[in-house]
Amino acid sequence: MGITRISPTKGNLIATKKSLDLAKLGYELMDRKRNVLIREMMMLVDKVKTLRDEITFTYEQAYLSLQQANISLGVVNEIANTVTIENGVHVVYRSVMGIEIPNVSMDESDVAFQYGFTESNSKLDEATILFNKAKRLTILLSEVDNAIFRLARAVQKTQKRANALKNIVLPALKEDIKFISEALEEKEREEFTRLKVIKNKKAQAALQ
Questions:
Q1: How far is CA 20 from CA 28, 105, 168, 171, 177, in A?
Q2: pLDDT single digits (tens) 179-207
Q3: Domain residue ranges of the chain, discontinuous segments joined by +
Q4: Pairwise CA distance, residues 196 & 208, whole Å
Q5: Domain 20-154 is in which class?
Q6: Is pTM beyond 0.70 here?
């Protein structure tokens, strides 16, 4: 049974056929949008794995350098306290099929060694550079992770709407068209039969 049992008129048949065409177009657009979002998401999923591997390796190297700096310099807490808090992170958004995707950036600047050269050595400098690199990679990872989450949620919503069109709306409209068409055909047959009876009666009356 269709969504509603409408009156079987020619006007309703034309309107329902137009609704069916629009629903088909809507489904095609939804399916196209879903495919674009999935393709975008899968590209980012591949990027996440690469980023995670690079971050892990960078942190390992950074902590190794920091450990070696600790061994040669002693505790470096006082030096660490001279590092300023990062406030140069910015977020803007780009649109992918109407979905707002974050683009996180950090002010580009050379690594500033905020300690005296007499208080450090090459390992501490190396650790500083590596931790700065890890920070930038982590910011990039947060951007990609958030984008994947937003895209996945959009894919789910788009898929749900596409399924509703495919499994509920389209079959219902097709059934309504079938119902109206059959009802109109039946009405035409009845009208044809009625006119034929009238014609026969007139013919018989003319012979009498």
A1: 12, 46, 12, 9, 9
A2: 999 999 998 888 888 887 787 777 777 76
A3: 20-154
A4: 19
A5: mainly alpha
A6: yes
